[in-house]
Amino acid sequence: MSENVDKAVKIYRSLCLNPSLIGAKLRNNQAVVNTIWSQRNLERGENTKFLRSIAVSPDLSKNYELLPVDVTNELLTATSPSEKLKAVLKSSNEKQYLEIWQNQNLTKSVDLNALDIHGDVYTDGEFRSFEWSPDETKLLYIAELKVPKSEPFYKRNSKKSNKNSDSDKPKTTKGEEYLYRQDWGEQLVGKKKSVIAEYNTEKDEVEILAGIPDDVCPAQVIYSPDGSYVVGVAYKTEPRKFGLIYCTNRPSTIFTLDFSGNYAPFPLDNKAVKSPVFTPDGKALIWLQRDAGGPHAAAMALMKANIPLLDKPTITIVVDVVRREIATDNGTKFYGLFNNGFVKRCFASGNRLVLSTNQKNTVNTYIIDIDSGKITELNYNNGSQVVLDVVNDVILVNRRNYLMPDKLAICKLPPKESEVPLNWIELTTSNVIPGLENCIYEYLDLSQKTDDSVKTFSAIYLGPKTSADKSVNLIVWPHGGPHSAFVNNFSLESSLFLSMGFAVLFINYRGSIGAGQDSVEFLLSRIGQTDVSDCILATQTVLERHSSLNPDSMVLFGGSHGGFLVTHLSGKYPDMFKAVVARNPVIDVASMSIISDIPDWCYVESGYEYTQTGKLNDEVLLVMRKASPIELAHNVKAPTMLQIGSKDLRVPPHQGLEYYNRLKANGVKVRLNLYEDNHPLANISTEIDNLINSLLWFQEHL
User: Fold this and answer.
1) For residue 598, what is the enclosing H or E element?
2) Which helix (H) or strand (E) holds 673?
3) Overall domain count for the chain
4) Which residues does 309 contact at the CB level (< 8 Å), separation at least 6?
5) How does DSSP assign 17-70, residue by residue?
6) Strand partners, 466
7) In a domain, 563, yes or no
8) What's the rounded mean pLDDT across residues 512-535?
9) Which of 246, 268, 294 is the last residue of a domain?
10) Interior CA angle at 456 toward 451 and 457, to 5°?
11) Is the pLDDT of residue 263 over 50?
12) How crowded is residue 434: how many other Cβ atoms within 10 Å of its Cβ?
């Protein structure tokens, strides 16, 4: 056992040396590419973020590369349009500092906590902004509202100094110490009321922009092309907030706000919006939009409004929600837009928008002509391709797959109407992960032989190229969500399992994103049924295709809704799988509906509209319960490991704890690890423990 543990830890440590490419920016002179990478740092117990600068020639080939520089404490950065200034938000000793740099030196350093004008600056992907004004004198960002201090109704005060007037004292309120103020849930704890802040570099002052109504939270704000107003997303907060992360369905609209406090929302009824961006010519605004409510992730439409943005702007659809599939301009299949936003610089000449989005088993990159709506795919056949930056028709992308770490590629985009083929140059190299040289990935296109309105789905198989018959153990792994998807990119988890001799089956069952809106909506009211049957069909198919797999040595692995599925499978097919690892699994939808930060999820996935008005509907709760794995817990035979985050607000820990107690009562071998972590269990100390323990659990019971 100790030798096995040592081997697993050694492999894990080696895999941690592979960084992920998370950003890149080409200088305007096209001579330098600055790239940002993230890497697990086991000694520090956190992810280290570092900058790699690459010099390129006029033909875009690589000249040389500088040594990496640690930028872990940089929370946000923004370079001004002229590239003469750079703004950096840094953290140090639980404080936030705003710095302004010129080429030669640091010109401003502002202790934002000392100013006491607002709370923490938002750095998350849902709200954050960090934008230079067109004249490069101001910086726009989102922060937490500063709430006046509250005192108890009775408090003995010290003797007042005659020198201190009432105007010198900070404003306080009485009796509001315990007033409940709801935040935005999982991974957004403490973010309750956002405000728009503007830092004036000339005056060295921060101002909170007035005019935002109390019942909305502003997000993703940007300056207008002339700097006379700002545009952003306004999230509606009444009658309550719901968890926002991983959810594109929250009621919201686009708004404009001028510097006199005039707030004007777009008349978008029952819509959810993301990521407003102005076109380079300043003549139009684009954004992503879908219906509010419904599944937490779904296909988006690309919208456009021409400037000026009047009280009732003329809004047109550039790319509509795709129900099944359509053809791109270069003849490939396109299943719709499932991205939540765009890179900061996302336009090529001729109003060509460059974006990346889920498409079945990969993330693909496309050019969309926002004048005509034409879609062109920038083909890549060896995994996923993700756009990072676009400037002067030069595109930077990240290329990745399951067997190879991220690598940076660059190309010059030809004129409009002649985008393909392209001449890509890879600026960084990556080799197949040591130990995975004899492994393959394979896409499976699957179809149920039923009368269902949607029959097709997909899966990804990872395993050895060749091996003796029935010699390989298989991990069956459905994703969470359920409206998400596995895509072909480097994964430390799957690399560890492959290196230890396992094969892996990733299942994108019906309901996954990247396969059209009809597939997403199909799963509603069918959780615990069609997603389970899709897992079985995928498993049976891969067993038929690969004789090296041992049907008597299969295990289950999944988290969140993936945990819901693996616990369902172990209860419905108790003799099929030998062991289970479930991470923050949904076990009882009915009880989750009253405590999760997304209670609407429980209703929508069960086939009902969420409401808290009127009398409780016992029928709805019964349907939720009947769809839940807890209904089958008495059938379970497979030894089960539960990995639970004590701070999980999405699938609260009572779900796993109840399942643990029920399995114990039924004589099933069960183990529960309780981590001081939230839903993804992504802290470094948490990750190494749950992965190694999962591996050992599988090996012990095979």
Assistant:
1) none
2) strand 670-675
3) 2
4) 231, 256, 264, 266, 285
5) TS-EEEEEEE-TTSSEEEEEEEEEETTTTEEEEEEEEEEE-TTS-EEEEPPPEE
6) none
7) yes
8) 98
9) 294
10) 140
11) yes
12) 11
- Residue in 110, 102, 56 with CA at minimum distance from that of residue 79: 102
Return the structure tokens found at 691: 């992965």
Read off the pTM: 0.95
Instruction: Enter the tokens of residue 124.
Output: 């998350």
The conformation of residue 160, written as its DSSP 8-state character, comes to: P
Does an H or E element contain 700, and which? helix 684-700
Of 278, 294, 310, the last residue of a domain is 294
In a domain, 426, yes or no: no
pLDDT tens digits, one per residue of 78-117: 999 999 999 999 999 899 999 999 988 999 999 999 999 9
pLDDT bin (cut points 50, 70, 90) of residue 577 is: very high
Coil, helix or strand at residue 530: helix
- Which are the contacts of 143, defined by CB distance < 8 A and separation ≥ 6? 112, 118, 119, 120, 121, 122, 194, 195, 197
Contact 142, 96 (CB under 8 A): no
CA distance 31 to 426: 15
- CA–CA gap between residue 285 and residue 568 (Å, rounded): 46
The predicted structure's pLDDT at residue 173: 86
* CB atoms near residue 22 (< 10 Å): 15
Checking phi first, is residue 294 left (phi over 0); if not, alpha (psi -120 to 50) or beta?
left
User: What is the C-alpha to C-alpha distance for residues 576 and 67, in angstroms, rounded to an integer?
Assistant: 51
pLDDT in tens, 475-523: 999 999 999 999 999 999 999 999 999 999 999 999 999 999 999 999 9
Q: Which amino acid is at 25?
A: K
Residue-level pLDDT at 158? 73
Instruction: List the end-to-end C-alpha distance of the chain, in Å, as a whole number.
Output: 14
Q: How far is CA 70 from CA 38, 47, 162, 420, 689, in A?
A: 10, 11, 52, 37, 26
Q: What is the pLDDT of residue 3?
A: 83
Radius of gyration of the chain (CA): 26
What token pair was written down for 108? 């401003």
- Whether 663 is covered by a domain: the verdict is yes
CA-CA-CA-CA dihedral for 173, 174, 179, 182, to nearest 10: 0
Q: Of the given ranges (14-23, 46-55, 414-423, 465-474), which has the lowest mean pLDDT?
A: 414-423
Active site amino acids: 560, 648, 679
pLDDT, tens digit (0-9, with 9 covering 90-100), for 301-349? 999 999 998 777 899 999 999 999 999 999 999 999 999 999 999 999 9
Q: Which amino acid is at 455?
A: K
Statement: residue 419 has pLDDT above 90:
no
Q: How far apart are alpha carbons 123 and 109 in whole angstroms?
A: 18
- CATH code for the domain in which residue 621 is found: 3.40.50.1820
- Polymer length in residues for the chain: 702
**Domain presence at residue 422:** no
Q: What are 472's strand-pairing partners? A: 549
Kindly give, in sequence order, each residue whose CB lies less than 8 Å from that of residue 114, ignoring residues fewer than 6 positions away. none
| Range 139-145 average pLDDT | 98
In 241-283, which ranges are E strands? Answer: 252-258, 263-265, 271-278
Is residue 602 within 8 Å of residue 628, measured between CB atoms? no
Give 336-349 pLDDT, tens digit per residue. 999 999 999 999 99
Helix residue ranges per DSSP H, 75-129: 112-115
Residue 162 has pLDDT above 50, yes or no: no
User: Tokens 């928008």 appear where?
Assistant: 353
The predicted-structure confidence for 355-375, as pLDDT tens digits, reads as follows: 999 999 999 999 999 999 999
Nearest-CA neighbor of 503 among 479, 480, 471, 478? 471
**CATH classification of the domain holding 107:** 2.40.128
For 557, the domain range is 441-700
Using 50, 70 and 90 to split pLDDT, how confident is the model at 606?
very high
Is residue 518 classed exposed, middle or buried when 0-12, 13-18 and 19+ CB atoms within 10 A define those classes? middle
